[in-house]
Specification:
Blueprint (H helix, E strand, L loop, with lengths): L6 H7 L44 H11 L9 H9 L5 H5 L9 H29 L4 H9 L7 H34 L7 H4 L2 H13 L8 H27 L2 E4 L11 H8 L5 H10 L8 H36 L3 E4 L4 H11 L2 H6 L7 H4 L6 H14 L3 H32 L21 H4 L1 H5 L5 H47 L1
Antiparallel strand pairs: 1-2
């Protein structure tokens, strides 16, 4: 006796009057038919690349919620997601725009800012779409799915995950070291010259203790991290007001040169570095998870798209005055480099902007938890090693500091612009497309309630059903058509610009060496 089918299947197969019933002579399938009965859903599966479609299916929602429960970032409302999307723009890269010494054209500076901010938002959306397409909610899982062959939790996957985590941790340590170094230099401007040598070792120690106190939490949803990130953005706005007032009143000093920041650093690279971001995938998932009860499904994806575009646009407008000041500085000073008079407010707000931005970087970095040591303390010991390593790198010699800045610039730009493009190309051009309606694996005779209805030959070949294959091909063509716009943006804009950037970096290094 065949097992009892679910209610939905029974409603279409159990009635003698149903056109698909085995008792019906005019049905699509009879007892001797060689094709399996196909039960298609009432609504077509949606694709993440469709800007005019609803969000994922209910099965995707259930799978997503199971994964969201294991994420380090819990559910966040729209305001907090917007804060964490905006704050990476308003940090060291933006502050470096006014520190350049080379001449800059206003037209070239504006084009660089517009292109960099637009590509940053574009690449963020690529990560968002890849996360939805693969149903992976961490960067490590997406990269493993794209570049590691095979499935499961084997040794190869473990090695790949460890390598990715180490690369991310290295980049975060170098980034925090740059924040520490610039913060220390800003604080030293407030110290008398005869006491700077004495105060220099103590300032990094005090800043490290301050950062550790704010980094005790295990998630960026904690109030200390939220308050620190908010104050960092407010401090940047205050710093921008002070800088604008200094340029408006003419309180600038002209000098012939400034210390070299690195081989690859100039005003244009500072603009590009300001548009590099992180945490896109976890933030998109945390926002989607907080909107489970939203009446319309499409608003969950639309909300992140809107926050992404608004954060990039607002950051571009907040950095626009700095590009204008950088161009006017060269024109007005006739080739001499002008800098803002230090005073008290400029270094104070600059230090607050950078030091208060460090806790979110430290807390969001992937770190193993040492259970046998962590039970005796409220802080993960690995986090202390993380901050200590960054402090030690920040007090390195000028030559080592320049290498750190150049390496951080390369890692930040590669992770923001090049990595999502390569991941997208690998997933969609070198991997088999994910099935939409076809089953992933043939079902056994005992596991399928339709085996007694559709015959034994359909059980051995359920994936070869003509109707199901026709539906799959139609949906795959539809998915490809919706993805053409993003493919064109990657192949025609993003990849050529990345190649030009690689050639420029190689040329700078060859000429310098």
């Amino acid at each position: 006796m065949a097992p009892v089918a679910p209610e939905r299947q029974r409603s279409s197969l159990g009635s003698p009057d149903s056109p698909t019933s085995p008792q019906s002579q005019g049905g699509l399938s009879g007892p001797g038919s060689s094709s399996a009965l196909v039960l298609l859903p009432d609504t077509e599966p949606q694709d993440p690349y469709d800007l005019g479609s609803d969000d994922d299916e209910s099965d995707d929602e259930r799978d997503s919620q199971l994964e969201i429960q294991r994420l380090p970032i819990p559910h966040l409302d729209s305001a907090l997601v917007f804060l964490y999307l905006l704050s990476p723009y308003l940090r060291l890269g933006a502050l470096y725009i006014t520190d350049g010494t080379e001449p800059i054209s206003l037209w070239h500076g504006l084009l660089t800012l517009i292109f960099a901010s637009s590509l940053s938002a574009f690449c963020r959306h690529l990560w968002f779409m890849l996360s939805r397409y693969l149903r992976k909610f961490t960067l490590e899982d997406i990269l493993i799915e794209a570049f590691v062959r095979g499935r499961g939790q084997g040794r190869r996957h473990s090695f790949a995950r460890t390598s990715i985590v180490c690369a991310i941790a290295l980049f975060r340590v170098l980034l925090v070291a740059m924040y520490f170094q610039d913060s220390v230099n800003s604080v030293l401007q407030l110290v008398p010259e005869d006491m700077q040598s004495f105060a220099h070792p103590y300032i990094p120690a005090f800043l490290a203790f301050f950062v550790l106190v704010l980094s005790v939490s295990d998630t960026v949803a904690a109030k200390p991290v939220i308050y620190a990130s908010t104050l960092s953005a407010v401090s940047y706005a205050a710093w921008l007001i002070v800088v604008s007032h200094a340029h408006a009143t003419g309180t600038v000093q002209s000098i012939m040169s400034r210390p070299q920041q690195g081989i690859l650093w100039n005003i244009y690279s500072s603009i590009v570095f300001a548009c590099t971001t992180t945490l896109t995938v976890p933030l998109s998932v945390s926002l989607a998870g907080s909107l489970v009860a939203w009446p319309a499904k499409r608003h969950r994806a639309r909300r992140f798209e809107l926050l992404n575009a608004c954060s990039a646009a607002l950051a571009m407008f907040l950095m626009l005055p700095l590009v204008v000041f950088a161009s006017l500085r060269v024109i007005n000073m006739n080739g001499r480099t002008s800098v803002i008079s230090p005073g008290v407010l400029v270094p104070t707000f600059r230090t607050m902007t950078l030091s208060l931005a460090i806790p979110s970087v430290v807390v969001s970095s992937p770190m193993p938890r040492l259970s046998h040591i962590g039970c005796y303390t409220h802080m993960n010991p690995v986090r202390f090693i993380f901050v200590l390593s960054a402090v030690l790198l920040s007090i390195a010699s000028p030559s080592v500091a320049n290498i750190i800045r150049d390496l951080t610039l390369v890692l930040a730009c590669s992770g923001t612009f090049l990595l999502p493009a390569l991941t997208h190309i690998t997933i969609h051009y070198f991997r088999r497309p994910l099935a939409i309606v076809l089953p992933q694996a043939p079902q056994s005779v005992h596991a399928s309630p339709r085996s007694s209805v559709s015959g034994p030959r359909s059980v051995s070949r359920p994936s070869l059903d003509p109707l199901l294959q026709r539906k799959e091909r139609y949906l795959q063509r539809r998915r490809l058509g919706k993805r053409l716009l993003w493919d064109a943006g990657i192949w025609l804009v993003l990849i050529p610009l990345c190649i030009c950037a690689v050639v420029w970096v190689a040329g700078r290094l060859i000429v310098k060496w």
